Amino acid sequence: MAQTEKKGGLLRKSSASKKPLKEKVVLMYDEIFTTEDPSKCNPRFWEELFLMKVNLEYLEGKLEALDGEELMKIKDNINCLFQHCIQALGEEHPIRVVNALQTLCALIRGVHQKNKSTSGFDIINMLVGFDKAELCMKNLMESLDSLLCAEGSESLKSLCLKLLLCLVTVTDNISQNTILEYVMINSIFEAILQILSSPLSRREHGYDAVVLLALLVNYRKYESVNPYIVKLSIVDDEATLNGMGLVIAQALSEYNRQYKDKEEEHQTGFFSALTNMVGSMFIADADEKISVQTNEAILLALYEAVHLNRNFITVLAQSHPEMGLMTTPTSPVPMTPVTPLGTTPPSSDVISSAELPLDADVQTSNLLITFLKYSSIVMQDTKDEHRLHSGKLCLIILTCIAEDQYANAFLHDDNMNFRVNLHRMPMRHRKKAADKNLPCRPLVCAVLDLMVEFIVTHMMKEFPMDLYVRCIQIVHKLLCYQKKCRVRLHYTWRELWSALINLLKFLMSNETVLLAKHNIFTLALMVVNLFNMFITYGDTFLPTPSSYDELYYEIIRMHQNFDNLYSMVLRLSTNAGQWKEPASKVTHALVNIRAIINHFNPKIESYAAVNHISQLSEDQVLEVVRSNYDTLTLKLQDGLDQYERYSEQHKEAAFFKELVRSISINVRKNLAFNTLSQELLLKEFSTIS
């Protein structure tokens, strides 16, 4: 007996020469794609259609194969199919509901593919018709809301979320997707919150729910009142906010774990053995191969939560055991293809706070620590465009955190000490720090470490000026809080001072190349003013008097760099070129640093001459500094502890528009056929009563 094969909706016998047979559902689709009403000859047509297993590939392909004129001819049948799908969502039989949801996905995607160049209005007209659009979309959204909130099948909820993601991402620029007006009017916000607040629903659907919410928040956010923005900003339910935090933490933890696995795999491989033999000259090249797809979608969700909802700040510090160290029960998750933007959901389930037993032997973590580790990986390599966007978004999130009074309170809390193992870029001139030697410190120390690490490791030809400016701004905002609240932080400030001086040195060494692309004086002024902040107010927030002495020692020891900077800005400020004004600002800002150098250098030289010492030790220089403070005169500089608060709409709108566009494209790519596979669904609903 010849073997029967199935391909593209065709049934055929491999040894037969007869015409191939089509599946019944395919024959029914063909009837829809005629100008006749398919229910004329068969009154039970629509009823029977939703009992058939959907052939997504055939249906979408059929829609895409038609030209615009042909599609308009069958518009009435497409509208009819769409309306019957919505009616089927209210059926008792789950098989009908499943098939209706999948048919809607195919219809939306197929019509979109055909109408890529047209507006959302044309897509609405093609799917439902203008005259019935409002009522149909209202019924659709109400049905989806009911299915998401019901205690029924988790598979159905999953399909509902897939359909909503399909609907939201039907256009690359979601703000041009007019269908979303109906999603704004008929809100599903409460349904999303319900998923996030329930441990079971969150495990199954948390990732899709969070990504969906992040996208909906970005619909025409600068042009009109977006109800999802308004509602997200006032959520105060602890279980919901914690649930959202756990979903984000799990996704970021998964990324961190994958990176760590690849790193370990790299170190134990043949290449690692080879580099051990010949030295570490190739270490940078070896590390560049460690690449895990970044996840901008989940990062956008974190940003919106931090930026819009002040109550979410508390979630950042919510303690739980290190997720990477825990073994959690997992359930099968549909596999999705990896995309350049990594919008693939994490492979392990999100765990609720109730499922997190605190063990004294397990390292305690929180969302902020997980995020800092993620940032330390992503910010290592900014040459790749996606990583550059991720790095920028990480710094924007940290900027929002650094401006928040409550966030600063727990960042600087001496009673909240953590061991944060940030990833450090392999560099030839430094050894890799041992994880076990990391001290437990307030979380702000890890933020400062991350900023120092970035400053030290990105002085390169393709200079990421924008990221450097954000980095220095974050440090400045943290110092402003410390000065205001007189927080004496026990931190290795010397590492920061050294990094800042080396940055100034780099700017001067590459003056010609950098000035062709950037206004380096903006950054130089910010760095100089950080030193002015330490000089003017350091006695109020540096941990000990000796720390203040060490600041002066570093300035004096590295005085040549400040002298060179002064010479450079003086030269440019006395010329009538484009850099005259920005360079002169740096000249004025250097007044106190130059006063310190000019005051102490002669004293040190005199001390060395009197005591017949050719080279003074650090202790001897510090002795000279301490004994000559009284005669030092400094100018009071205004506005050092002031800063401009972060504003998304005025400065970052273009960045977020492009970011959301790329996320939308990749979320749509992720909704591939296998994520909508019916195999699990049919097993779940194997009988129809």
Automatic annotation (TrEMBL):
Keyword field: Membrane, Transmembrane, Transmembrane helix
Superkingdom: Eukaryota
Pfam family, one: ARMH3_C
Domain Armadillo-like helical per the UniProt entry, residue ranges: 435-671
Nuclease keyword on record: no
Keyword set includes Transmembrane helix: yes
GO cellular component: cytosol; membrane
Protein's cellular compartments: Membrane
Name listed for the protein in its UniProt record: ARMD3 protein
Organism from which the protein derives: Poecile atricapillus (Black-capped chickadee)
Gene of this entry: Armh3
